[in-house]
Amino acid sequence: MVRYTISTGGFLMNIDDILFSYGEEDVPFKALSFPIFETTNFYFDSFDEMSKALRNGDYEYVYNRGSNPTTRLVERKLATLERCEDARLVSSGMSAISLSILHFLNSEDHVVCVDEAYSWAKRFFNYLSRKFGIQVTFVPPDADRVLEAITKKTKLIYLESPTSMRMRVIDIRKVTKVAKELGIKTIIDNTWASPIFQNPKILGVDVVVHSATKYISGHGDVMAGVIAGDKEDMIGIFQEEFKNIGPVLSPIESWLILRGLRTLEIRMKKHYENALVVSDFLMDHPKILEVNYPMNPRSLQYELASSQMSGGSGLMSFRLKTESVEKVKEFVESLKVFRMAVSWGSHENLVVPRVAYGDCPKEDVNLIRIHVGIGNPEKLVEDLDRALKKI
């Protein structure tokens, strides 16, 4: 795995420093674990101190609906990991997506969105279209198709790479180069790769969002989202969307994310190692039609994927050689190590068939998504092989 140093305020910082010590230089009482500041209010010793804080509410500790020391520590770490100037934690990945989108759009604006983005992101765009006249064009996750869809009214391009269900990779640099020339903002969902394996900011993206519920927290016990970008955009999102809507993350959950960050690099490396073993097995299996895992060197998208990412996560999908819903059900119900669940990103091994959703097109009946956890990959291969033999 590629290790790197990050320039922060004029000095270079190793990734270990970010995960373990950055921002924790003056921990109260020399505690080895940063404390949870579980308070709603912060007091002041003078009128002038209070007045200054109220006039600079972006970064001052006044009221927990704005900023909190535990949360701000995690936000600083995440911003640095993503090579961004600032970041904000919010109450869910969907909050991160919706707040970012809202900030850059007015009624009658036009958006280009990849059609394989997270389903709730697409639903939100459809909601904005119905209620506020936002025009949305959904296109396949291909840079040329995205650029062809741009109009004079386009204000935002929304990307996801790799995508949620088919793990398609888009040429991010190609899109952002044109977007910057035209003054169009770009947002990308970087949950799949995590900031360990992909930094969209250095590829030209304006705002990076994550479901911190997944790899960033990594233990399946926190619901959270992250927004990261330039300070100007982040202040705008904080003042106009975050403060008005109020999707505040509790300090306890921020602390749990901090705990998860300590092992983020180690966990991502293990997810990737396991996913390569599992994807190789599936690619060689006679009952598998195709495997979607772009960071496997055997993938058709590997060249593009590896030019943007230094590794892969545990999320992949594949197609069974069947069109039978009953056989798909038999396959997933035969799995013992993989358990059926819709989310992903922590240590568990999970499976969800596309056909379980009510709006499944006929061509996707045989599409299965799995999340490869951080245990023994041979057990996962054995479990998949046993279930495949049943059909």
Topology readout:
Layout: E1 5-8, E2 11-14, H1 15-20, H2 47-55, H3 69-81, E3 86-90, H4 93-104, E4 110-114, H5 119-132, E5 135-139, H6 143-148, E6 154-160, H7 172-182, E7 185-189, H8 194-197, E8 207-211, E9 225-229, H9 231-245, H10 251-261, H11 264-284, E10 288-292, H12 302-308, E11 315-320, H13 325-334, E12 339-340, E13 350-353, E14 367-371, H14 377-390
Parallel strand pairs: 4-5, 4-6, 6-7, 7-8, 12-13
Antiparallel strand pairs: 1-2, 3-9, 8-9, 10-11, 11-14, 13-14
Helix pairs in contact: 3-10, 4-9, 11-14, 13-14
Features:
Aspartate Aminotransferase, domain 2; about 400 residues; seven-stranded mixed beta sheet; 14 strands; globular; Aspartate Aminotransferase, domain 1; 2 domains; alpha/beta; disordered N terminus
Radius of gyration: 22 Å
- Poorly predicted regions are 1-12
The CATH class of the largest domain: Alpha Beta
Give the CATH H-level superfamily of the largest domain: Type I PLP-dependent aspartate aminotransferase-like (Major domain)
Q: Which architecture of the largest domain per CATH? A: 3-Layer(aba) Sandwich
Largest sheet descriptor: 7 strands, mixed
Overall tally of domains: 2
The H/E string reads EEHHHEHEHEHEHEHEEHHHEHEHEEEH
CATH topology name of the largest domain, in short, is: Aspartate Aminotransferase, domain 2
- Structure class: alpha/beta
Q: What is the average per-residue confidence, as pLDDT, rounded to a whole number?
A: 94
Helix content: 25-40%
Q: In order across it, which strands form the biggest sheet? A: 3-9-8-7-6-4-5
Beta-strand portion reads 15-25%
Number of helices: 14
GO molecular function: carbon-sulfur lyase activity; pyridoxal phosphate binding
Protein name: Cystathionine gamma-synthase
Pfam family, one: Cys_Met_Meta_PP
Keywords: Pyridoxal phosphate
